[in-house]
Design brief:
disordered C terminus; about 0% strand; about 65% helix
Length: about 250
């Protein structure tokens, strides 16, 4: 597990980017001045060390220059910030099926203030974090399965050559699934009988897409809290094997 101060540092970095998003949407001379203040404060506390070159480049763009895609990507980090603040015992758990609102989360972080005001004592118990991680990993698996099932509903040939799907159908057949019903039905059998997530089939497409996004970010945040070395190893592999694309 990460140390509380490491989780707090990451939370501060995320909050800084989300506040920069607020300024991006505000615009004008005030936003430009506040962006400079925010950058100076973040530099002072070494918050950009965990941001990476692409994130730093985005931060340093003038307010109003972010693409819609960049704004949407940063807005999703509110999910990770919410998870970290919850893990640090500074916020309630996020809603199970709704996106986190960044505004009240930013109120819990001392942006542009002395960091002594960010009182961090300990993370929640590991058992509590593991329980949350299991929930969001299961939800992520379920959302991906339902998305795949809907793709197969539209085009059954989309699953051709998918060895993992073939193996899954064989395993489910041993549990009583009728393989003649096809791959989409197999995935939904998996949802209902293995993951206990029957409700996903009834979600509208937009709601399912949102749940998928929520689950991806929250599961990732909890994975980092519990197994930070995994992410460090992945970053090292990317740096040594596949350099990041240059924009």
């Amino acid at each position: 597990m990460v140390q509380p101060e490491v989780a707090a540092h990451r939370a501060l970095m995320l909050a800084t980017m989300l506040q920069r998003l607020v300024l991006e949407r505000t615009g004008g001379a005030f936003a430009r001045a506040e962006t400079q203040r925010l950058k100076a404060w973040a530099d002072e506390h070494d918050l950009f060390l965990a941001l990476g070159p692409d994130g730093l480049q985005l931060f340093e763009l003038a307010p109003g220059d972010w693409s819609k895609e960049a704004q949407e990507a940063v807005s999703w980090t509110a999910e990770e910030l919410h998870l970290l603040l919850w893990a640090l015992q500074l916020a309630e758990a996020p809603a199970a099926d709704a996106r986190s609102d960044a505004a009240p989360l930013l109120m819990k972080v001392p942006l542009l203030q002395p960091l002594e005001k960010f009182s961090v004592e300990a993370l929640r118990a590991e058992t509590e974090l593991v329980e949350a991680a299991d929930h969001w990993e299961r939800t992520l698996d379920g959302a991906r399965s339902e998305v795949y099932a809907r793709t197969l509903d539209e085009d059954p040939s989309a699953g051709e050559g998918d060895d993992e799907l073939t193996e899954l159908i064989a395993e489910l057949a041993e549990e009583g699934f009728d393989a003649s019903l096809g791959p989409a039905a197999a995935l939904r059998f998996h949802l209902a009988h293995t993951l206990q997530l029957q409700r996903l089939e009834k979600l509208p497409d937009a709601a399912l897409a949102q749940l998928l996004g929520i689950a991806e970010v929250r599961a990732g945040a909890l994975h980092w809290l519990l197994r930070p070395d995994d992410e460090e190893e992945e970053q090292e592999e990317e740096e040594t094997v596949t350099p990041p694309p240059q924009n």
